[in-house]
């Protein structure tokens, strides 16, 4: 009978050891699941933050490019002023002419400034109202008799700001002649 008791005790000890190993394996398994859950939460949070940053950057870029003015040509007209033919950049949103400001800066004088409120549509389907993408417009920039008239062999800088959107910079290059019809851009 003592022999039988010892055998039963041995079986119980083996069963206890196997049970302890199983519980240990289960604890390790649960710990791995928890670590994986935390790691996946961090990865998801990082991916969301990257997506938000990309969206913000895209929106800022679109705001900078939206309603940007593209001068097609600038020539000296009969009165010595500058006649600018322009259009909005492709994909731009409409903008009121009065919200488009310009400034012509020369070396020694204060800049000439104003807005493009006097713009007129040149293209056949243009008209009054806000500037639209795909339309060509023309405006006279009064500079003759102002601070920065066309001056032979000088460069002036034209800056155009379309509302809160993008800026356009153009160098007005005056050659030896500043007569009517001279192209400066």
Fold and architecture overview:
There is one protein chain. With 185 residues, this protein is an alpha+beta fold. The protein has 2 domains: 1-65; 69-173, Immunoglobulins (Immunoglobulin-like). It is 35% helix and 25% strand. The protein has one helix at 2-65; strands at 69-76, 82-88, 100-105, 112-115, 120-121, 137-141, 155-162, 167-173. The strands form 2 sheets. The chain has a 4-stranded antiparallel sheet with strand order 1-2-6-5, with no helix packed on it. A 4-stranded antiparallel sheet has the order 4-3-7-8, with no helix packed on it. The model has no long low-confidence stretch (mean pLDDT 83).
From the N-terminal CA to the C-terminal CA, the straight-line distance is 114 Å
Structural class, please?
alpha+beta
Give the integer mean of the pLDDT values.
Answer: 83
User: Strands across the major sheet, in which order?
Assistant: 1-2-6-5
CATH topology (fold) name of the largest domain: Immunoglobulin-like
Shape: rod-shaped
Strand content: 25-35%
Tally of structural domains: 2
Largest sheet geometry: 4 strands, antiparallel
CATH class of the largest domain: Mainly Beta
* CATH homologous superfamily placement of the largest domain: Immunoglobulins
Helix content: 25-40%
pLDDT < 50 runs, ≥5 residues: none
Strand-and-helix sequence, N→C? HEEEEEEEE
């Amino acid at each position: 009978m003592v022999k039988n008791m010892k055998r039963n005790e041995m079986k119980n000890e083996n069963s206890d050891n196997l049970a302890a190993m199983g519980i240990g394996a289960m604890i390790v398994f649960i710990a791995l699941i928890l670590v994986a859950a935390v790691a996946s939460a961090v990865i998801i949070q990082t991916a969301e933050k990257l997506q938000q940053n990309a969206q913000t950057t895209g929106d800022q870029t679109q705001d900078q490019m939206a309603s940007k003015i593209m001068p097609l040509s600038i020539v000296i007209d009969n009165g010595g002023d500058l006649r600018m033919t322009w259009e909005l950049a492709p994909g731009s949103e409409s903008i009121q002419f009065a919200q488009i400001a310009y400034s012509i800066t020369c070396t020694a004088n204060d800049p000439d400034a104003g807005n493009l409120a006097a713009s007129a549509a040149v293209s056949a389907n243009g008209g009054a109202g806000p500037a639209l993408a795909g339309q060509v417009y023309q405006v006279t920039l009064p500079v003759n008799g102002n601070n920065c008239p066309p001056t032979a062999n000088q460069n002036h800088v034209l800056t155009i700001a379309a509302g809160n959107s993008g800026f356009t910079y153009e160098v007005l290059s005056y050659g030896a002649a500043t007569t009517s019809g001279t192209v400066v851009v």
